[in-house]
Amino acid sequence: MKRILIPAGGAILATGLLAAGLAGSAQADTDVAKDNMATTAANAKAIAQFWAENNGAALKAAKESNVWDKTDVAKLQTKGGYSSDTKPGSTAPIGEEKKTTAKVQNVNLPKTIGKVFFVNGKGEKKWCSATSLQSKYRNLVATAGHCVYDTGSNSDVMSKWVFVPGYYQGKAPWGIYVGKTAYTHYDFDVYEDYDRDYAFVTVYNGVSIGNGTTKKVTKAEWDKFQGVKDAKDEEITASEYQKCKDLNGGETPDCWAKANTTEDLVGPDYKGAVKVLKEVSKEQFDAAPNGEKNGARANRATVTENVTESQYKSYDGPGYRKIDAKGNFTITHYFLKYWVKKTSSVKYYRTTFFIVEGYVKDAGRLGDNVGGQGFAWNQPTGKYVRVFGYPAAPHPDGNKNYTGVTPKWCYGKTTKKLVGSAAKKIEEHVALKCAMTEGADGGPWLYKYSNAKRLGYVNGVTSTFNDQDGNGRVDYISSPYFDGETNTVYKAAASNWSGKIV
């Protein structure tokens, strides 16, 4: 187990526990960093609608996380390693406990996995992989720490953070779950130590967005309503308009009149014709006939005005700008004179106001809908795990095998080979032979995974992507080692209720 300490000189050091006095409740209190995300139900509702509107357009527009670049894809090292700080432990999963345990050959994907979507410090829509996790109130998501905190811009928690289990092409089959509170290890929150690159996020009850019941309301009710609404104008007769006025004692937002004036081009001999000026570009001016011979409808006129330098520079109309020999700023306006027939009329309208009730519905608790994986810590390496995620990024050599549309999986024994990244302070990761690329980061490493129950124990989350044989392709992934301090962070998150959005 590694701890980041600040000695008297102020330098940051990575060190093991050398005294029992550093352990215990005082230490546990310093392990947990807690940060708010969506602080109110109204804020959470707006975030859910941001991602769901226009048939999930924002969800579809998001790209995979890109924390790791080609220079970060390192070769694994065998020196160093983790050290267990307590005895191995585990917390059982929830959901689908009564299913059979018959062995099958195909891999059944867990219902708990999905994508977390967020907006980073650059304003980019991004996503990572994640899973629902067992907790007291069935409201917890496990993912990578860098999928919660914007380490790239060294800013606070990601904006508009949501979890969508079972995500597929803009669809949220079990609803959208907005993050309320993020729990990480103090060393990741403060020092960006990737040996603690994990996060547990409590989420509000999910919401399903769409459909609903359309209801006709008054203008006052329409103004107060905070959800989806619409208004429709329809033309009515003068008698209908008068009845509405008489009934309401005058014009209302429901019934109103609008005067319309049209100008139809006519010849100069048309009875009642009126001559009007219309400003045009110099090209239109030059192309128009000069005078009214042979029934021509237009003749020409120009006006030149002196303006200030700022007016000259800001002008963007059709007139011609010029600086004369004396340095004066001028704009010449060109006009064509037309003969028109003016017609005035009044049209009457009625506005109908609608609201959509039930457009945002409560989808219930996350764990009730998709279950929750168990949690394990201080487990030895060399054990089989099954890793799930949504890889999408190309390999460092530019080759791309993944789309990020559907989840993929890897299976094998964990190894104590470690990732060499001094910049990210990595000394205690565990690794797995796997070719998944970015987009899979944050995805769960499931220990003792039951293919029949689709449940296991989260014993890691994908953090890094590595090139072991040096051929420019990812062949190993790694996870922080889950120890007793990880369990402390998990327990702090697992005991907190989030509430409902609607």
Summarize the structure.
The protein is α+β, with helices and mostly antiparallel strands and 502 residues long.
Plain-language structure description:
This is Serine protease. The protein has 9 helices and 30 strands. It is an alpha+beta fold. The strands form 7 sheets. Strands 14, 15, 16, 17, 18, 19 and 20 form a 7-stranded antiparallel sheet that branches. The chain has a 6-stranded antiparallel β-barrel with strand order 7-8-9-12-11-10. The protein has a 6-stranded mixed sheet with strand order 6-22-28-27-23-24, covered by helices on one side. The longest helix is centred in the first third of the chain and has 21 residues, at 41-61. Mean pLDDT is 84; it is low at 5-27 and 96-105.
What would the keywords be for this entry?
single chain, 502 residues, alpha+beta, 7-stranded antiparallel beta sheet, 6-stranded antiparallel beta barrel, 9 helices, 30 strands, 16% helix
Name the shape in a single word.
elongated
- Helical/strand content category: alpha+beta
Rg: 33 Å
Instruction: Characterize the biggest β-sheet.
Output: 7 strands, antiparallel
Q: Spans of 5+ residues with little confidence (pLDDT < 50)? A: 5-27, 96-105
Q: How many DSSP E strands?
A: 30
InterPro entries: Glutamyl_endopeptidase, Peptidase_S1_PA, Peptidase_S1_PA_chymotrypsin
Keywords: Signal
Protein name: Serine protease
Organism: Nonomuraea bangladeshensis
